[in-house]
Amino acid sequence: MSTALQITDLSKTFPVGKKLFGGATGAVKAVHPMSLSVQTGETLGIVGESGCGKSTLARMLVGLLPPTTGSIEIEGAALDNADPAAFGKRIQYVFQDPISSLNPRKTIRQIMDAPLKLLHGMDRAAREKRILEIFDSVNLRADFLDRYPHEFSGGQAQRIGIARALAAQARILILDEPVSALDVSVQAQVLNLLADLKREFGLTYLFISHDLAVVEAVSDRIAVLYFGSVVEEGRAEEIFAHPRHPYTKLLADSAPVVGRPLSDPEHGQAELPNPLDPPPGCAFAKRCPYASAQCRSAPPPLTEMGTDQRVACYHPLPAPEQV
Amino acid sequence: MSAFFKLLARNRLALGGLIVMGLVVALALITPLLPLADPDATDTANRFLPPLSDGYLLGTDGLGRDLLSRLLWGTRLSLAVGFAAALFAAVAGAAVGIIAGFYGGRTDNIIMRGVDMLMAFPYILLALAIVAALGPGLVNALIAVSVVNIPFFARNIRGITVGLAHKEFVDAAKLAGMSNPRIILSEILPNVVPVIVIAMSTTIGWMILETAGLSFLGLGSQPPQADLGSMLGEARSALITNPHTSVIPGIMILIIVMSINLLGDGVRDALDPRLKSGALSRPMAATRVERKERPAPETSTDAILSLDDLHTQFHVKDRIYKAVSGVSLSVKPGECLGVIGESGSGKSVTALSIMGLVASPPGIITAGAARLEGRDMLSARFGELRRLRGRRVAYIFQDPLATLHPLYKVGDQLIEAISCHRAISKSEGRKKAIELLKSVRIPNPEERIDIYPHEMSGGMRQRVGIAMALANDPDVIIADEPTTALDVTVQAQILSLLSDLRRERGLAIIFITHDFGVVAQLCDRVAVMYAGRIVEEGPTMEILRAPAHPYTSRLIACVPELGEGKRKLEAIPGLPPSVDNLPAGCAFADRCLKAQDSCTKGEIGLEGSGSRAVRCLFPEPGFAEETA
């Protein structure tokens, strides 16, 4: 298996506040240096709460934001978006809000034409044929092509967004909360479609979501983000069943599940650290029942624990007993 | 296009402006064809003839030139110059604005500071300076007027472009391989054109005035060529002795500018997308109620709040959207009723109808009753409804950032919520507000009371939203997706808070959500809505264990649950029917695997035994056994 996507020490810092001349007054570290890799044909799930840096990470991966430090390698070559036409063929992005990612003043045909014409230089007849093929594979009807985006429901619009990403024939798709704007019955349709497409075209996915159950249902491996850092990474079937990081456990315990009594695992109240003034140690220490002086002084490194699991914690929860 | 004219015609003044403007333009266009005297031919024997003189319909000016001819030729010239100047200013201003807005950063800074400098001069002074530099003449006046108006367009268009440049469809275009110039032309420009048209329609009159002003000063059209401004300028010396020479061009300027401005206002309104949906029309203070028959008197129950066969519709143009068609619900003190459904199922409209909060127009309650302790609130007068809103029945909305006023401190907003219903002193109000913040478990309430909503996290803001709902000790709280915008860890905190409050205060809660997990944890009973109706109702645990309606059971199957690993999910193919075109019989029939012919014929009642009810001819097997 080859590596489809390799990021090394990638980070992003946004300047905040502006002086009259020159520099910024402060900086927010949206993404702390992190390293991740995705194998070809794999789905890596990224899960975390709002403000954890997951969308910033995604936008860096598709070249919409320049990283502050670190490198991104796509299929063995460094990310290079100097030529938009070459770059678009290697990696594509599916947006969270399906409606606002479609230009309201263009027909679906015009939207679908753009990547085919600009990335692949197809002529009119070839484009028409290809669009119909793609529409067929995402279960959309050809008569949608001459309509405008506002005429579609969320689920249909998201399928159009996926169709547009497929048109580029990139083998890697970054899916940024692709179903969070959709109703559950439609959400399942789109998730199943994504699974079918992956099998059919041999795609690699980076699937970002705040919904643990959705991520677990589609991913091979999952990385949990908190405050811009990976706190735990492991196989999908393991990570929520046997979390080693206290934050992963908190997430898993907070998800409302039928049949589990209502509980507030934190008993009241917890707040995210201030991004302008991050704590010196582990960002989760303030909310963590196991936090020690060591946690508050230096951030724990991401270390291998068990098979194919990495945890950034000085006091990881015990591993499940070997059966 | 025809829709645009219909909207325009709705504004009578704009229609009048359009007609007058059309006449003036038509007259200007056919001027060369009319049998008019030479506008520049002087005839000193016939100086200052009054209007209606023989051979001179509008009289003559100081050099004996035919005023009618000069007026028409002058109007033609003034209109042409005005339109040309507006077009030039719009094109140049839009180009500058789009480039500044799209590229941002330093480009934006340099361009906009240049524009600011242009704006810093009084415009007429600037125009005079430009003409002075270029020399007098109509073309130079045109250039001056255009340049002076470029900043107006540039600023307007830049603002719109900045918003558009960060839209996701622009990112998508980048990833589709488009270069920046191409994105500007094919993605940004079509979205700014309406704004350019609106800005042009409202400034064209102004530009005609400015050109006339320059001509009046002798800097525009040069004699003997006539335009409206120069006609005025030449007549100035005879203003007292022969007023008609200045009044006639003056009236023409008035007519042109008035009609263009009225038309411009109409165009702006007609192009505003909000107007099409009726959102610009101010909603009434309470939803309109148009019931054909009085609701039947209530049968006595122990419910604190009950809905009886509620119908709420939206009348938009000639379409009727039946958002809620026949919903009956009731909730007892201390009880939590969940209303679950997908978007468009009518759950929010049901909730808003209770206190008449559905916007009218276009919303109308056409039948049914909403009773608070037996009293029908839909027939209550507005004054009474207002006393009850927030006092007895309070709402918690989905987006706390949108419900809290961004410019007031949270404490002041809490105090205001209390003082709406009873007089309260400042110190007492503050004490009560701190108490409320404490009751929703906000840490350091004494400090937090003095901060603004944007300084709080989403979870904290929603706590304030809940505190505000609790401010007047209501009996019923209607919570419309209060945790949907929140993270799971925060959601858990808010849900357990609501659950505790209900127990402590004996609150009745109607909890609207799309999440079965949330319903299962919080609600005693649940009603499932589909296409504006309740399809199933009963105790939460029983429904989750053995759903009776095929829709409920398949919807539950769709929800991925943690701990089940990677798998294929259940899905319900198709979409719910549009509520302006509901099928006969069961609305779910065309997505249902068990549908028979009988499902699509006639009404299907909500029937059941004991605490459960279902609107289905062929309920799921588990349910049939239980009730048998």
From TrEMBL, chain A:
SUPFAM superfamilies attached to this UniProt entry: P-loop containing nucleoside triphosphate hydrolases
GO cellular component: plasma membrane
Subcellular location: Cell inner membrane
Domain ABC transporter as annotated: residue spans: 5-252
GO annotation, biological process: peptide transport; transmembrane transport
Gene3D superfamilies: P-loop containing nucleotide triphosphate hydrolases
Listed PANTHER family: D,D-DIPEPTIDE TRANSPORT ATP-BINDING PROTEIN DDPF-RELATED, TRANSPORT ATP-BINDING PROTEIN
Protein's name according to its UniProt entry: Peptide ABC transporter ATP-binding protein
Organism: Thioclava dalianensis
TrEMBL record, chain B:
Transmembrane feature ranges: 12-34, 77-103, 115-135, 188-209, 246-264
UniProt-recorded name of the protein: Peptide ABC transporter permease
Keywords, in A-Z order: ATP-binding, Cell membrane, Membrane, Nucleotide-binding, Transmembrane, Transmembrane helix, Transport
GO molecular function: ATP binding; ATP hydrolysis activity
Intracellular or extracellular location(s): Cell inner membrane; Cell membrane
Residue span, ABC transporter domain: 305-556
GO biological process: peptide transport; transmembrane transport
GO cellular component: plasma membrane
Domain ABC transmembrane type-1, residue spans: 75-264
Primary localization: membrane
NCBIfam families cross-referenced by the UniProt entry: oligo_HPY (TIGR01727)
Similarity-based family: Belongs to the binding-protein-dependent transport system permease family. Belongs to the ABC transporter superfamily.
Pfam families: ABC_tran, BPD_transp_1, oligo_HPY, OppC_N
Membrane-topology annotation of the record: Peripheral membrane protein; Multi-pass membrane protein
Family matches, as Gene3D superfamilies: MetI-like (1.10.3720.10), P-loop containing nucleotide triphosphate hydrolases (3.40.50.300)
Organism encoding this protein: Thioclava dalianensis
